[in-house]
Structure formats: structure tokens, C-alpha cells
Amino acid sequence: MKMKKLTLLVLTLVMGIVLVACGNTPQEKFTKSVEKTSEPADQSTSTIGITIDELPATLKAQQSAAMLEGLTVKMTVANDQKAQKSATTIAVKTAGLVNLDATVDLLVDSKAEKVYFPLSDLYDDKGNLTTLLDQVTSGMFSQIKKDNPDLATKYVELSDLAKDLTDEKAKKEATDTKEVEKATKDLSKKVTKTVTDYFNSLPEDRFKEGDNGELTVKLTKTDVTKLANELVKLADDKDVKADLKVIATSQGVSKSDFDEQYASAVKSAKDSIKDLEDEKDAAITIDATIKPGKNDSIENMKMKVKITDTSDKENPESIAFTMTMKTTDSAKLPKFPEASDVISTTELQKIIEEATASYYKSMYGDSLTDQETDTDVVQ
């Protein structure tokens, strides 16, 4: 079994449920809470986390995959729709081959079309980001921080970098913000309806309610493939494709490229689902738990996923991970930077280049520069 491919498909499906995700019965309460996710509050804070609980031996043997051992990713997004501002914090920790402990923040001003990264994240030594970067740069990163203490209060404006990485011609095809918002909401409603319709089609006794109000349902490989097939059917809806085109072109994808990429993505999704249906040695379980909050919306969600390859009956292998989500109807945004607090990526690059040159000069004198100059002359 192609464990990576199956894991990617299941993870994508689970993320879809989380991101789209009370009556009298546990089933009605469960589906009503999921349905409420298509009606976001004006202010909200959502925290989504993923933790790798188990890795199969074959993946641990691969250097790139072994880095996932003990991985925990936590993303918190505070969003104020009226102010058109949001703040995202991403925290990553690993306990495997590479020991990583880092936090990154992004501030987005949608109205001004600005994205800011606070350099204070690089000056905060709570994690081990400085240590890792020093290992890569032979200690130069710490020297740059030491020589430029004023950067600790600055923000890098990333919007120009994003523009450089996109096709300017394609950007001209981008639609206005209101069209994108409408397309996003329409798409969310269709996806949410598909998910809730599937949950409503399940036998009522599969849903349980605990004394603390938590609602649970266990999904199997059959559920995963059936729900995935229902979701991929949306690709044949011309309105769904139109909404996705609006969103994609707003991100810089040309309309002609979108049509080609869309067809390829739909085919890839259908092929993956077919592979999963045909894979007789694959076992999948998803234990989904929802705690409804006020107005029946999801307050907490937890999904424990386990994928097992039983092709080797004596040594079956499994990968397991847990996804969590918590939401509140409030958003505490940090102070956004003033113009005097912001530097461009070009300015930051210049500072790094000058600091790098100074660093190597202090270590090697002018010999390195002289060698580079001699090489240029010869060429």
C-alpha cells in the first residue's frame, strides 16, 4: 500500500471536515454544529492543531519522513471581518531526527493588501530557531542579530515579495474582494451541505452523546471513500468551478492555467479515491468528537485518525495522527505596525548582505573578496 498517498488523501478529507465543521438526537446535534461552520462570526479565533501519534517503521527509516516523528503543529487565526484584519500564529515542534521548536506570526491587512512578519520572532530565544539557523550559517545568524538590535522592533512587509513571485499579467485578471468573498461563502455552503447530508444519511445509532455534551461518531474506510466521492462530485457543478476560478485568479492564477490545473486536480482526486477503494489491505478509522458551544456552533473538535497497512499480516504498519479545532466568537488582534516600523524585503536583504560580508571579512579578511574578484577577471 502506498501509505503516503493514502495518508494525504485522508488528511485532505479530514481537513475538509474540520474547516467546514442543535437538534434533539446526537446525530442532529452533530450535523447542526457542522452546518453552523458556514456561518462565521464577524469576529472569531480558531486554533487548529495536528499531532503525529504513530509512524510506521518504513517511514521512520526514511530521513525526510523521520522528521515527522513527534511532530506537533498548532495554528491560531484571529479574524476581524469588519476591520478586514487577521493575525496568524504558527507553532511547530518536533521530537524526531530534527528537534525543532519555532513560532512564526503573520499579520494580514486585507483592506490595504499588506502582509507583515514581525522580526521579533527571530529575536525571541524561547525556542531553538536561532540555534538551528546558527548551525546552518556557522554562527552568522546570531552575529546579524547582535549587530542589528533595532530590527527586533521592525516588521517586514511581505506583499512585494508575493507580487514578485506571481505573474503580473495574471494578477490583472484578479477580481475584486467582494467577488472573492461571495465565491468563498458560496463554496463553503456547498461543501458544508455535502458533509452534513452525508452525516444525516448515516444510521442514527452511530452517533453518541456523552454526559459532558460531547458528540461522537466513528468513521471507517467505507465512510471515507463515500464522503470523498460525494465531495469530488461537486467538481462537476459549474457554479463550484466558477467559484474556485474566482478564488484562484484572485491569487494570481491565469484563467487559462486554472482550467488545465482544475481538470488535472479533479482527475488526481478521483484516481486517489479509486486507489483507496481498491486497496484491500488498507484499514482506516476516524474517531470524530464535537463539543457544541453557544448557538450550536462547534466549540471544540477532535479527530483521531489511524491508517493501517495489513499487507504484511505478521508486521502490519500504521500511521496515526490527531487533529483538533477550537473556536471562539471573539478576536484579540495585536497592534499593527506603523509605517515607520516597516521595512521592505529589499531593505532586509541589503542588511543581511552587508552583515554577511562583514562577518566573512572578520573571519577571513580580504582574501575571500580578492579571490572572488580574481575569478571574475579570469571569466
TrEMBL record:
Coiled coil: 259-286
Keywords, ordered alphabetically: Coiled coil, Signal
Keyword presence, Coiled coil: yes
Signal peptide (from-to): 1-23
Origin: domain of life: Bacteria
Record protein name field: Lipoprotein
